[in-house]
């Protein structure tokens, strides 16, 4: 069973909070919808998307430095569907294109994660509440 969790990886845990679990081979980063159309000149601009993409970039760098699993999820659209340069996938990183709001609906994401033995997810990106 995969458990999604928002972890404090790049900074110390708040006072009184449980310390974050260290990264391991059973943890994957899932980067959601950091795509051009959410940027200020895109067709669906969000509030301060550059800050969000910069934070995603920091997480990606942390995961890449440890050679941990990273999955990039994006809407399957042609217009402005490319990933933001901050989060551009590199060779070997999984890319999941979706036609639904959920990254799991109609994709191979769950099978991929289970096949790699992933049990915990760190999720970042745009519209992650969806």
Radius of gyration: 15 Å
User: Stretches where pLDDT falls below 50 for ≥5 residues?
Assistant: 1-13
Major sheet description: 5 strands, parallel
Category from helices, strands and their pairing: alpha/beta
Number of strands: 5
Number of contiguous helices: 2
The quaternary structure here is single chain
Order of helices and strands: EEHEEHE
Portion in helices: 10-25%
Instruction: For the record, give the distance between the C-alpha atoms at the N and C termini, rounded to a whole number.
Output: 20 Å
Q: In percent, how much strand structure appears in the residues?
A: 15-25%
Shape: globular
Mean of all residue-level pLDDT scores: 85
Q: Give me the side-by-side strand order of the main sheet.
A: 1-5-2-3-4
Commentary on this structure:
The chain has 130 residues and is α/β, with parallel strands linked by helices. 18% of the residues lie in helices and 21% in strands. It has two helices and five strands; from the N terminus they run ββαββαβ. It has helices at 49-65, 109-115, and strands at residues 3-5, 27-32, 69-75, 94-98, 120-125. The protein has a five-stranded parallel beta sheet. It is globular and about 40 Å long.
